[in-house]
Structure formats: structure tokens, C-alpha cells
Amino acid sequence: MPSTRTDTAPDPTSVSMGRRERKKAATRQAIADAALRLFLERGYDDVGIREIADAADVSTTTLFKHFPVKEALVFDEDAEQEARLLAAVRERPGGQSIPAALREHALATRLASGGGDSRFAAFTELVNGTPALLDYGQKMWLRHTAALARVIAEESGLAADDPACTALAHFALEAPRAAAVHDDPRAAVTRAFDLLEHGWSALAPGA
Question: How far apart are CA 194 and CA 93, in angstroms?
Fold first, then answer.
């Protein structure tokens, strides 16, 4: 028998699923917000999981369903970051090379100054001053290597498993951390991407 539901009548299952997903997203955001607030107030190591759960008005079980480890509470936009990273390659201006697009993305996101935003500065200080967060954040960032390598291959007309695409993706993601130890990280990132763009022989002829 054909369905009598009109196009304007919502599917109860879809509506229910939509509400559940929105509720999950709101709970996740509330937990992340509570955690960051406490971390900024007292420091990462001085805040416990139960305190965060209480501040977000959830159980510790619910907290761990959304964030499997404590470090993940600080880095809660992983999917969005990957989407922006891949878009930087796919949506680059005509005539711009892939290394150049990745350089611009790194300068705009990985070395962003926050534009004088005190909260951004506090977050950066929190991460840079907490070895566990530094290590976890870099590991999370490098997880995008495979996805980035696939997009590089697609945009370049190369095989999906071409090792050059994987190498470019890895080096591009690693460059901001390598540049951070230099007096001028932005200049260091630009120099690193010059290597990716032109190759060693162009930067150091005869070496």
C-alpha cells in the first residue's frame, strides 16, 4: 500500500534522530566548554574528570562517551579542522600550487595569533605549557595525513597510494611544529614550504 504521508509531513523517525543528534552535540559542547573554562582557571593538571562532569551536569560515564581521554577535552574540533584542511587544497585559487595552499592554511590556522583575543592567547599558553597536550595535539593533527594525501593525489592526478603524496601531506602537517622553535616561526614555515614547493636543489644548489 502506498504511503499516505505528504511531502510536507516530517518523518517522525527523522525528527527524533535529529533531536537526539542535536542533544548529543549540545551535551558534547557543554562538556568541552566546562573543561576549557576549568583548565584556563586552574591549569590542566589540577582539574579532575569528575569536576568537569559536575560542572557540565553530566555523569563521568557520559563524559567518557564523548571524550575517551582527558586530553581530547581540549581538542574537540578534529573533524572540523580536517574539513578545513582538505578544503584548503580542493578550493585553492586557480593557479595556486598545493604546497602554496597548504602554506597559507598553516600560516592562517596553525600559527594564528588570535588577533589580540585574550581567550585565544590563554588557550595557546595552556597547550604550550602542558607537555601532554602538546604531544596529544600533534598526534591528533598528524592523523589527517592519510586524508590529506588522498586529496593531494586526487588534485594532482596521481595514484591514491603514491608515496610522494603521503610524504607531502606529512611534511606539510609537521612543518608548523618544526618552525615553532625558530625566532620567527612564520618565516620558518614559509622557508619549509619553499622546500616542499621547489625541492632541495633549488634552495641549496650543489648541496
Answer: 18
